[in-house]
Description:
The chain has helices spanning about 10-15, 40, 45-55, 70-80, 110-120, 150-155, 165-180, 195-210, 210-220, 235-245, 290-310, 315-320, 325-340, 350-360, 370-375, 375-385, 385-395, 400-415, 430-440, 450-455, 460-475, 480-485; strands at about 5, 30-35, 60-65, 85-90, 95-100, 105, 125-130, 185, 225-230, 250, 255-260, 260-265, 280-285. By secondary structure, the chain is of the alpha/beta class. The strands form 4 sheets. A 5-stranded parallel sheet has the order 6-3-2-7-8, with helices on both faces. Strands 5-4-11 form a 3-stranded mixed sheet, sandwiched between helices. The protein has a 3-stranded mixed sheet with strand order 9-12-13, covered by helices on one side. The radius of gyration is 23 Å and the shape is globular. The N and C termini lie far apart (about 55 Å). It comes from Azospirillum picis.
Amino acid sequence: MTIALSAATLPAVAARASVPAYDRSALTAGILHFGVGNFHRAHQAVYLDSLFAQGRDRDWAILGAGVMPSDQRMRDALEGQDWLTTVVEQSGAQSLARVTGAMVGMLPVGDAAAIIDRLADPAIRIVSLTVTEGGYYIDASGAFDAGHPTIRADIAAPGRPETVFGLIVAGLARRRAAGTVPFTVMSCDNIPHNGVVTRNAVLGIARGIDAGLADWIAEAVAFPNGMVDRITPATGEQERGALARDFGIADAWPVFCEDFTQWVLEDRFSAGRPALEAVGVQFVPDVTPFETMKIRILNGGHAVIAYPAGLLGITFAHEAMETPLIRAFLRKIEQDEIIPTVPPVPGTDLAAYFGIIERRFANPKIKDTIRRLCLDGSNRQPKFIVPSIADRLKARAGIEGLALESALWCRYCYGETETGEAIEPNDPNWERLTAAARLARGEPTAWLDMEEVYGEVGKADAFRERFAAALRALWADGTQAVLARYVGEP
């Protein structure tokens, strides 16, 4: 018999999964979180659930908030099960289910007045967010886009903001007026210097409204940078069915994730923080070395396997890792070109870290899709791949593998697999990318003229030559032959 998850059914669910051993009625919200998606519930919420299980810091529970249609769907799902989530942590050998209870509610989606009221509440001491890499209103130069129509609307009507950042500014303005200590703003998104990017967005809106408010935020509010890591695929009917079949639990929106998790966070907070170091969070004065390591080796590695796999019709990441040519491509490009660009990381052996990454990518339980890894390359490539190319060029070092990775992305954006099957649009800028890729088939370096992606790297003769040669070879000989030449196979 399948048990529907709720507070009332937890005693029965406890025979099938670990459940909160603490009194959830004793929790009070200290964190307001925007974007209650899968990654948040597999990461931050799990750390807090573990902390509460130790009997600590139960005034730091999570109150959800959101402004997007997907937030409403999530709210409806979670409200029906008393804000509980089943998290299935999967290694290659086993799957373990746990029910987390760190969330105590979620505000009405898009209700600016209700959200600002809670942001003004002194009990809320951290405002955290996972709004995806593309949700920070960054322009082509990498700066905050203060001219975006939605941002301009928030500046023009500060009492009725529609964006997360406009709401944060409104909440901070209320706290300033009341003489309340400001909350910390803590991004948990996978972007370089996420605290700095978030600070730029908040200050960009604040400056458009009130220079004095902006100065106060700049002086009083902490925006710690953090490195977050846990592979967490999307939830679909397959995952819901697997939870019911394997554990006998019905959860409207469960989370399946790998058993690995990491969180490195700068210890800068405006109004205190929970003792997350007790459950494995690493607090450091500067997260940059850890961030660079993860973005280049893991996220860059995902890009390395994604596009050849997409062109060869491979569905899942672990299947790509079971393909000898793709695994050899990943290993060679990481060892020869990516890892050498990563500065030393305190207490970390980079080769051993890459070994962990290989095992994680090959985990057959995760079923992370190649399509997800290929998604939004126009936003991800400038963050995960282009900086490594830039550093290799500065060092006058080889870039053959990185040029090939870029050529594979271009070939993927042409919109057809090696067998001629259509690749469905997979980027917010897909039409432009497809047009550029089709032009590049005859004139390869036209692809590198996308300055918002490549910047100065796209103008470098050494890179243009290598890229053009790689793309021509892909069209002439196919993905498998080109990969085989690169890795040195006959």
